[in-house]
């Protein structure tokens, strides 16, 4: 291990030296004092940057850019789309991200819809959107980044933040580049949008630490029925923001691989409320958590399949359940019941397997509930 670390350190020095030399030759800042670095490339009419300071963009306009991310095995780069609505007047800077997982389409459309509603000429402050963070995962509409370092290896990019520009994997380096040069420098607050994963759908809910006043104020502005009051585990993007003092949380918007217009509209409305709360856009608030019945839980109870077979759910998303209540049964190819599943807690259904069949070990149900004293870090099966 020590030998590997030593070799890795030497390699990092060599790579950094080469990268610095190459960048000096191939990139140019907008001005001698600029913190925005243009690579000189243009893709589909959009300039490419390797670092960005939104304060250097022209006020009162929308700006469409590409950010140069990590290199592919061929030596070319993965690029992510950056939309900046720079207000005509100064104000707070908000960041909206999606596509950290490649199968989460409703999150992408939510961010696009919010950005399409913004008029920079009427704004005070800036909103930046990055909708395709994990670009190679999005290309195949799969959850994880297909890393090529030691044969194919699927890496969950939402366990990599804040990343490491000299990390051992491409996703780690990509996260480091984005966080250090694009996201963190331009954020006073941040919202990282997600959905359920392939084969597993969730309700409309927000994840965030409600003990943080800046987070609580934003989360309660959404007209959705559930709040997961939990900081969850290290490595997720919203926690990387939180660790550097930037209030952040994660909305969850239904099922993967589809667009859910009804849920999307709720999160668009809530996000516009957040922008109004921060004084970036003007106008009356839409519906908030005060206009719906909200269940707040600080933990999630997973029910995993113990057998293989066809899954029949006996409850629906958002249903209330009690301890011992049967929530699902499973049948084999003959139609015989091979497993029955009951809730171990009192709470509300927040997620269900949407694929009709399951192997042993797959999550079937998640139940949002309240623990008297939840652990600091809870890891949930996927």
Total DSSP E strands: 23
- Helix-strand makeup class: alpha+beta
* Radius of gyration, taken over Cα atoms and rounded to an integer in Å: 22 Å
Number of helices: 7
Q: Which strand order does the major sheet show?
A: 1-2-3-4-5-7-6-10-14-12-13-15
Order of helices and strands: HEEEEEEHEHEEHEEEHEHEHEEEEEEEEE
Strand content: 25-35%
The coarse silhouette is globular
Q: Span from first to last CA?
A: 30 Å
Q: Please mark out the parts with pLDDT under 50 across 5 or more consecutive residues, or reply none.
A: 1-26
Query: Could you estimate the helical fraction of the residues in percent?
Result: 10-25%
Arithmetic mean pLDDT = 91
Largest sheet: 12 strands, mixed
Any overview of this molecule?
This is Deacylase. Pfam families: AstE_AspA_cat (PF24827). Keywords: Hydrolase, Metal-binding, Signal, Zinc. Residues 1-22 form the signal peptide. The protein is an alpha+beta fold and 382 residues long. It has helices at residues 2-26, 105-117, 135-139, 170-183, 213-219, 237-243, 261-277; strands spanning 28-29, 37-43, 46-51, 61-71, 77-86, 89-97, 124-130, 145-147, 153-155, 189-192, 200-202, 204-208, 226-229, 248-253, 295-297, 299-304, 309-313, 320-321, 326-331, 337-342, 347-353, 357-358, 363-369. The strands form four sheets. The protein has a twelve-stranded mixed β-sheet with strand order 1-2-3-4-5-7-6-10-14-12-13-15, sandwiched between helices. Strands 11, 16, 18, 21 and 23 form a five-stranded antiparallel β-sheet that branches. Helix 2 crosses helix 7. The two termini are 30 Å apart. The model is unreliable at 1-26 (pLDDT under 50).
């Amino acid at each position: 291990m020590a030998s590997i670390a030593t070799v890795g350190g030497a390699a990092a020095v060599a790579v950094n030296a080469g990268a610095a030399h190459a960048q000096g030759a191939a990139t140019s800042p907008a001005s001698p004092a600029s913190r925005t670095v243009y690579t000189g490339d243009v893709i589909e009419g959009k300039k490419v940057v390797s670092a960005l300071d939104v304060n250097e963009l022209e006020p009162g306009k929308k700006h469409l850019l590409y950010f140069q991310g990590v290199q592919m095995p061929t030596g070319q780069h993965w690029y992510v789309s950056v939309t900046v609505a720079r207000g005509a007047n100064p104000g707070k800077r908000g960041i909206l991200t999606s596509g950290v997982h490649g199968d989460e389409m409703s999150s992408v459309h939510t961010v696009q819809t919010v950005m399409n509603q913004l008029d920079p000429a009427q704004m005070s402050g800036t909103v930046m959107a990055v909708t395709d963070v994990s670009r190679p995962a999005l290309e195949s509409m799969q959850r994880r980044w297909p890393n090529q370092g030691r044969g194919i290896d699927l890496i969950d990019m939402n366990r990599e933040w804040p990343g490491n520009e000299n990390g051992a994997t491409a996703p780690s380096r990509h996260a480091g580049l984005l966080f250090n040069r694009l996201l963190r420098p331009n954020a006073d607050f941040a919202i990282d949008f997600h959905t359920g994963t392939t084969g597993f759908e969730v309700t409309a809910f927000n994840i965030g630490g409600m003990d943080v006043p800046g987070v609580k104020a934003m989360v309660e502005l959404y007209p959705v029925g559930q709040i997961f009051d939990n900081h969850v585990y290290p490595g997720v993007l919203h926690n990387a923001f939180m660790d550097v003092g930037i209030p952040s949380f994660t909305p969850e918007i239904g099922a993967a691989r589809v667009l859910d217009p009804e849920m999307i509209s709720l999160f668009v409305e809530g996000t516009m409320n957040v922008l109004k709360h921060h004084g970036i856009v003007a106008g009356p608030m839409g519906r908030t958590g005060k206009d719906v019945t909200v269940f707040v839980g600080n933990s999630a109870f997973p029910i995993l399949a113990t057998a293989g077979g066809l899954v029949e759910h006996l409850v629906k998303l958002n249903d209330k359940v009690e301890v011992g209540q049967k929530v699902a049964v499973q049948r084999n190819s003959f139609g015989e019941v091979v497993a029955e599943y009951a809730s171990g807690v009192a709470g509300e259904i927040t997620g269900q397997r949407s694929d009709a069949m399951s192997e042993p070990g797959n999550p079937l149900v998640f139940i949002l509930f309240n623990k008297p004293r939840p652990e600091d870090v809870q890891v949930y099966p996927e």
